[in-house]
Amino acid sequence: MNRAPTGIDAEGGSGKGNSTNRLEAFSDGVFAIAITLLILEFRVPTLAVSGATNARLTGELIALWPSLLAFTMSFFVILVMWVNHHGLIRLARGVDYPLFFANGLVLLMVTFVPFPTAVLARYLATDACRASAAFYCGTFFVVSLAWDALFLSLARNRRLVRPDVSDAALARIRRAYTLGPLVYAGSTLAALGSASVGLAICASLWVLWTHLCYRPE
Hints:
It is built from eight helices and no strands.
């Protein structure tokens, strides 16, 4: 007697899927929306027409540096997350409900990123800079936990891992994912003392993520 199917495939049928196409397509759309929302933090400086001068407009544009910094940082990290999402999902031989929901958790955090970005842009040049930076760094601590859940939903006991992916490759990725929450927690605590130090630690980890290799060998 055949066993009843336990999941859904990439085409919407029953049973574990052979493709991750729908999951990746939906995720790509969410990443694209989140990265686009970042630009909404920018506002055109408002000057009275009678008092508008080159010098005043230049000063107002320079005053937007916190928004530019926050936008650039968040654009970069969402881009890095999108690249790493592609690399991680490439290791999957199929999809099922736990993977879908874990992926949804990651997307939830991705769509939240524009909010701490706006908070950082608003308060980075004020006396509340440390609180805004700590909130920003703390957000990525939670983001890293969501990524850990996604990795476990795919790789625990090799439940959805392609046969050609080696245990050594999984161990390398697992070490990197374990490091993430520790570094982000450290950056959050550091930001409470110095906003610039906390943000620098946070950004340094993003640079390391660009070198994380998802090759199956």
